[in-house]
Amino acid sequence: MERNVLITGSASGLGYQAARLFAERGYRVFAGVRRAEDADKVARLHAGITPVLLDVADPAQVAAAAEQVDRACGPAGLAVLINAAGSILYGPIEYTSRAEAAALFEVLTFGPFELSNRMLPALKRFSSRGAGRAKVLNVISWASLDANPFVGFYAAAKAALLRLTQAQNLELARFGVDAVAVVPGMMKTPFVTKAEGTIGQVMARLAPQARDDYGAGLSQMASMSRGAGQNPLAASPEKVARELLAIAEKRRPKHQYNLGYDTALVRFLNFALPSWLLKAAKMSLFGLNRRPDRRAPVAVTAS
Fold first, then answer.
1. How far is CA 183 from the centre of its chain?
2. What's the pLDDT at 187?
3. What domains, with CATH codes, occur in the chain?
């Protein structure tokens, strides 16, 4: 039986490992990548992998890639769509521009939503064959279950995708398509291993007043991220990719899978601890207990 899968974010990390594992399992893999050099790298992984240029933040490219994959799948349809493309945005909400926030939502929320819609005809064709239910696996993050300083827009975008996935699960079930939220904890991906340098770049771009107000907290976050790649709670991308493969092959999957000890810990702490204690702990952890400079803010005047 021919089984096709489309995986976004296949150039590195989770998407890269998922492309390899699904191909080794016998799937025909369409691996979404943003750059031609990444396409060559992914193609060398396995003969069953077909790279597809796909930047989920580019609506025109999403439309073109969806048409290409739909045509290639033919009557067999698409068995699995995995929205694994990622991005991150660090910084205080006060000093984040609308354009920066919108760009993040394009990758983490609107891109997956649009690609899922465009691939629905192929997903429905697979289900109509009677060989099983098609799957849309949206990779979320435990950040969708919690809120922390300096990653507010990331948490918001992931939380939005979580709720969209839950709604998709209800809307698409009667068509034989299961939308599943996969919520992994920390992973040893480039986003984690490069976090300290990325936060440093954010701090360098901040205005002096912003550094005065938030520099200590950002420095604390950078310090905590330094050893994140060696954190025993951080899973390897390959381990999470194996979980994706197992979920994709379940006959009747759950609507949500929370993976990792750290995800379980976050859920427990948010359930067991009073909100005032959680707030106090986070403010202390991120160095936000220091009183800000009491200088009066500059008034904004109309021209």
1. 9
2. 79
3. 4-187+235-285 (3.40.50.720)
Nearest to 6 by CA among 14, 250, 22, 17: 22
d(CA 175, CA 125): 10
Rounded Cα gap, residues 68 and 180, in angstroms:
24
Mean pLDDT of the chain: 90
> How far is it, in rounded angstroms, from Cα 177 to Cα 133?
6
**Is the separation of the CB atoms in 31 and 7 below 8 Å?**
yes
Write the DSSP symbol of residue 52.
E
Structure tokens belonging to residue 215: 């520099």
Nearest CA-CA partner of 222 in 198, 242, 245:
198
Structure tokens at 262: 């750290």
Are 15 and 31 contacting, i.e. CB atoms less than 8 angstroms apart?
A: yes
CA proximity to 91, closest of 153, 145, 160:
153
| b (16+ CB within 10 A) / e for 141-157 | bbbbbbeebbbbbbbbb
- In this prediction the pTM is 0.90
Residues 6+ apart with CB under 8 A from 276: none
Q: In the predicted model, is pLDDT for residue 195 greater than 90?
A: no
Question: Could you read off the pLDDT of 5-36 as tens digits, one per residue?
Answer: 999 999 999 999 999 999 999 999 999 999 99
CA-wise closest residue to 87 among 158, 6, 182: 158
Residues whose CB falls within 8 Å of the CB of residue 21, separated by 6 or more in sequence, listed in order = 238, 241, 242, 244, 245
Query: How many angstroms separate the CA atoms of 133 and 39, rounded?
Result: 29
